[in-house]
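Milestone 3.1: sequence recovery, worked example.
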């Protein structure tokens, strides 16, 4: 299996034109999800003068539970003070492109990634709400790339509109809500079929090359 990057590693280039953050949600480094993440990362870092950072949510033991302190911040707004949240927000702030790589669980993100979004995309950081209730997205400069590994085939996803559901939930419901305009969702189907693993990794590399081509400057 492909050698994986170090947790929270930086591939640094002092002359880098862009910064790309990868947020990966899978507990097993030998998994197809991590092989896909590495294929995308390698294509991006080799194809563009980019500084790449990887966040491994499971290895980092990120706490996805939305607790009373998170609820208080949601209610009042203002700057997050928890060290793990500020570290994650700072990583997003550094990046021009944020790439999420994860297996699709029950037609959605894994719980650890959903909890990361719940806790990191805070009011007055990811979006604001004025006195009249108008919501303004604040992540307008970010390019968002979503790479989901889907166990089911494309035909099944279309039949039940799971692909549409994921687009509504993720692209529109989270990232467009937070102001991002440059969003792409890529579903890599039949991820449970080991005989198709090479094809899936090739698809991931193609996604990485596309990111590299559009993330410079």
């Amino acid at each position: 299996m492909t050698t994986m990057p170090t947790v929270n590693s930086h591939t640094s280039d002092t002359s880098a034109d862009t910064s790309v953050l990868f947020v990966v949600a899978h507990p097993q480094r030998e998994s197809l999800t991590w092989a896909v993440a590495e294929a995308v990362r390698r294509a991006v870092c080799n194809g563009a003068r980019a500084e790449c950072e990887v966040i491994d949510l499971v290895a980092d033991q990120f706490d996805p539970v939305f607790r009373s302190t998170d609820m208080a911040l949601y209610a009042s707004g203002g700057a997050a003070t928890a060290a793990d949240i500020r570290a994650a927000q700072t990583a997003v702030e550094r990046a021009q492109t944020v790439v999420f790589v994860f297996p699709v669980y029950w037609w959605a993100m894994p719980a650890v990634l959903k909890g990361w979004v719940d806790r990191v995309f805070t009011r007055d950081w990811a979006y604001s709400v004025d006195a009249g209730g108008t919501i303004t997205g604040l992540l307008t400069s970010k390019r968002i790339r979503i790479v989901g590994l889907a166990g089911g085939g494309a035909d099944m996803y279309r039949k039940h509109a799971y692909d549409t559901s994921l687009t509504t939930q993720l692209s529109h419901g989270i990232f467009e809500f937070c102001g991002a305009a440059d969003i792409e969702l890529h579903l890599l189907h039949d991820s449970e079929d080991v005989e198709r693993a090479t094809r899936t990794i090739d698809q991931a590399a193609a996604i990485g090359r596309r990111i590299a081509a559009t993330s410079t400057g």
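The mean pLDDT is 89. The radius of gyration is 17 Å.
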